[in-house]
Structure formats: structure tokens, C-alpha cells
Amino acid sequence: MADPTNRDRLPFERKSKKKKVEKKPPAVVAPSTKTSGAKDKKGRRSADSGIPAVVSQRMVKRMALFSGIPTGLGMLSFVLFYLVVSRDWFEIPTYVVFSVSLLFFGLGVVGLSYGIFSTSWEDEPGSVWGWPEFRLNLSRTIAVWRNAQQTAQDNGDR
Known about the structure:
It is a single chain. By secondary structure, the chain is mostly helical. The protein has a domain at 53-151. Helix content is 62%, strand content 0%. It is built from four helices and no strands. Pfam families: DUF3464 (PF11947). InterPro entries: PAM68-like (IPR021855). Residues 1-49 are annotated as: Disordered. Keywords: Membrane, Transmembrane, Transmembrane helix. This is Sll0933 protein.
């Protein structure tokens, strides 16, 4: 065998071997009670402008419901179509499988947005289906988009 120091190295091999250095445990630093003003302002601002925890949990539940059911049905449709075709119960054209699965997965994607927009931002949970909350939140979102577009046009004209 060739001496390892004299042989040609592959492009990904290290050129020199590094000696292992023993790792020292990290020093424990006592937390100081004094916080910087910038860090405090940033934390306070994100707490004020963020989504409240109650509303966030409500959004997650609605998104899971309005997206999870259609997505689950989309996956179940593949299994059902497979069983029907593999047992020769009857012939199913591929465009039917595609259309049904596309419909269910599309409803799952739409359900994500509906789950977010149909969530009440008030203390009360709102209605079961969330249609009044959806209309209110969508109108607020459209108003913000129009305001941002108007601001961008005003800044571009100057």
C-alpha cells in the first residue's frame, strides 16, 4: 500500500488533520435583572402587534377543520379508487381520479384561507361556520391592501 502522506488527495479530503481540542463546558452566566431599553421596546411591540394566543388557537382549530377534512377526503379518494380498480368492480377513467382528488385538495387549500379569515378576533369565539367573521376580516384585509396601494402610488408620484 502507498504511504498515506505521499498519495494524491481527493478534492473533498482535508489537507491537514486537525488535532481534537477538548471541549470545555460553557460557563454559566448569571442572568442580569437589568435589560436594555431597545430589547424591552422590541418585545413589547411584538406582544402588542401580534396575534393573541386565544385567537391563534382558534385559527389553528378552524384551519384544521376546514382544511383537514377535504385533504383527508382527497387522500381517502386515492385509496377508494385503488380498491375499485384493483378489484375490477368497474373501470374508472384517470381524469375522474384526477378531478376528484384535485377538487378535494383544492378545497383543502381554500380551507386554509377560510380558516384564517373566518376566525373572530373578539373575545367571543364567533359563529360556527364563521361567515360574518369572514366577511368582516376580508373587508378589513381589502381595505389595508387598497391603503397600501394608495400609499405606494402617493410615494411614487413625488
